[in-house]
Amino acid sequence: MWVMGRLRVGLVGLVAFCHACGGSDPVVEESPDFEAASGSEIRGRNQGVQIQGTLGTIPARKIDSRMQAKLRKLSRCFMVGMEDVEFVGGSVTLSFRVDNSGGVEWVFVQESNIGHRGTERCIVTEAARTAFPMPRGGSGAEFTWGFAMDPAGDLRPPVDWGADRVAESIAAAADLQACPGAGHRVTAYVAPGGAVLAAGVASDSEQAAQGADCVAEAVKALTLPDPGSYAAKVTFPLD
Q1: The domain containing residue 170 runs over which residues?
Q2: 80 in the same domain as 63
Q3: Residue 157 has pLDDT above 50, yes or no
Q4: What is the pTM of this model?
Q5: Is the residue at 2 inside a domain?
Q6: Residue ranges of the alpha helices (H) in the chain?
Q7: Are residues 20 and 125 in the same domain?
Q8: For the residues 149-170, what does the mean pLDDT come to?
């Protein structure tokens, strides 16, 4: 059983890299303490502002500042997921497009091994509400930002599987082929007996991300190989 608690932990591993936004040196900042679940750790990092063509720029330190302010709410997304599957945890990278006013035009899960679509949707919803500084020198801006949260340390983690363990089952899953988009990567928790406890989805593009819910539901409906006496966690590509 997951027991909610209070633990003051600091943000670690925060390194921001900004390209074509007024400097190429990494910016390293420390965050204030915040409350998280007992025994858990949350880590945030800016993955790099990606500027192309006529897009504008936002200083990486300002992106970090706005997202750090969201960490309490983002950690609560994990808490909800842990109530469903107690060992939910992992890292997520979000891809943003910000408009001229600093509002989020779109945001989607670009990388994730969380394995719980409800948690990912919650994170995306909170991220979409972020107000960023107005981009300078162009029409909007695009960047990625990520963070991670581990489950409580006293929990036994699921057994790690390679993608080959489920390749045959996934290839035979007709419902997955009906989902829109391509370029998905799925992480799933497999219970003893082969039932899928939960699944999360990362996508290569904003357009592909529109099919992520369909993919997650189709994976949850599958019966995968039996991991034995304890749950397994597996990440696999879905083209």
Answers
A1: 159-238
A2: yes
A3: yes
A4: 0.80
A5: no
A6: 60-68, 71-84, 117-128, 167-171, 174-177, 206-209, 212-220
A7: yes
A8: 92
